[in-house]
Fold this sequence. Notes:
The chain is mainly beta. The chain has helices at about 35-50, 55-60, 185-190, 195-200, and strands at about 5-10, 15-20, 65-75, 85-90, 100-105, 110-125, 130, 165-170, 205-210, 220-225, 230-240, 245-255. Strands 1, 2, 3, 4, 5, 6, 7, 8, 9, 10, 11 and 12 form a 12-stranded antiparallel sheet that branches. A hairpin with a 4-residue loop joins strand 5 (about 100-105) and strand 6 (about 110-125). The mean pLDDT is about 95.
Amino acid sequence: MEVFKQWYxxxxxxxxxxxxxxxxxxxxxxxxxxxxxxxxxxxxxVDDYRQRGLSVEILAQHTIFILVSRMSMRFHRIPQGDExxxxxxxxxxxxxxxxxxxYEFYAADGxxxxxxxxxxxxxxxQSRRIMRTKDFTLRKEPDYKRVHDCLDCGxxxxxxxxxxxxxxxxxxxxxxxxxxxxxxxxxxxxxDCLPREYQEKQFTDFRINFAKEAVQGDILQMYxxxxxxxxxxxxxxxxxxxxxxxxxxxxxxxTAVKS
Length: 259
């Protein structure tokens, strides 16, 4: 019987777990889907805090929500179905209003698969105000930083060439324990709205900015801009009827290899 382990490094900074990619997590190309990649990063971040005594329940008792704000990913190679991989995460030195969390996916032989940088905000759920990171005193503030092989998780520039694609409702199964759409679902929203020829591209990088939470009953109108010269797609989800931006995402892809 296989045993999948999880552990901290000797400095108690990096949290790592081994896992298998299941058939249900994959696309028609038998690759781990973008939504499932986001789900894995979210789950290991929550578990890292839980292992350190900061469960969702404990944070709620201290009137703290921690919400992902921005994320960047580079796909060196997307994991395949039935593959055993290793996923590591750790926090780095925060900015005044943003926590910084890193993810690294590795193949069984240690080859890098996905590199990711993310920023998170601290919210008081009662006032809905953003907290300063220096006021998050439930754990020692990390003082650690590496160089990362991915794009910066900064603000996405939205072009003026957006075209309307389709729309989708936010459903009950999209929600998480905070009562709003789980961040992993935006990976599905991003891919699902694209024309088929773009869904099948070989993506190299992904970035996303979360702007406004979506709840059950909201309708998202999806827009996109396709820059074939730069091999880049920008996707924007806006709430109907007021057009308020919910999220912005960006995908880069490789040129198709001629047979």
